[in-house]
Structure formats: C-alpha cells, structure tokens
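Appendix B. One record, verbatim.
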Amino acid sequence: MRRKFRATLAGTAAVAALAFVVPSSQAVVVPEHAVNLCQTASFYLNFNHATNAPAQYLYTLTYGQKVGHTPGKQPDYYGWDSTFDFQTQQWGYMEDACIGGYGSW
C-alpha cells in the first residue's frame, strides 16, 4: 500500500511540473468559422487600451470574406473582436457588428 501512495505522489508532482512548463493561458483556441457581414471592414493588428480603439491598420476586408472568432474565448474590447482572417492567415481586430454567419461554412 505504501508503494502505491508513493507512485501517486510522483505522478501528481509530474503533472504539477508540467503545468508550469505549459501555461494554460497560451492554449490555442481554434476560432469558429464566420464571415464578414459588412460591405467593407477595417482590419487592425492591435488594440490600444489607452484609447479604447484599434491600432495599426492592416487592410480592408470585403463582404463575405471568411473570418473566425470564438465569442467568450478570444478577446473582445469595446466592440472590437480578436479575429482570424482565413484568407491571409492573419490575426487582427475588426468590429463585432461585422462578424456573423457563425458555422455557415
């Protein structure tokens, strides 16, 4: 019985050590498939928390372009969502109102 207890402690210690090596905050969440519902939508690289606005304009998305965002899993700041553009394989921020059609493709 004593040997079993030691094995359990060793296993628990190994799991605890692994938790420090791979923090859960860096876990990748695959974005849900969606589309751009706006005629055009600006796509930005970052979000500036000092001004509560997106920063570093990248390009413009067109209507129907395939994007990805998982509500509740990826950041959403003041109506600007962290979004993945499947066409360019780029992460950025776009207006929440322009994201829709979840699961449509």
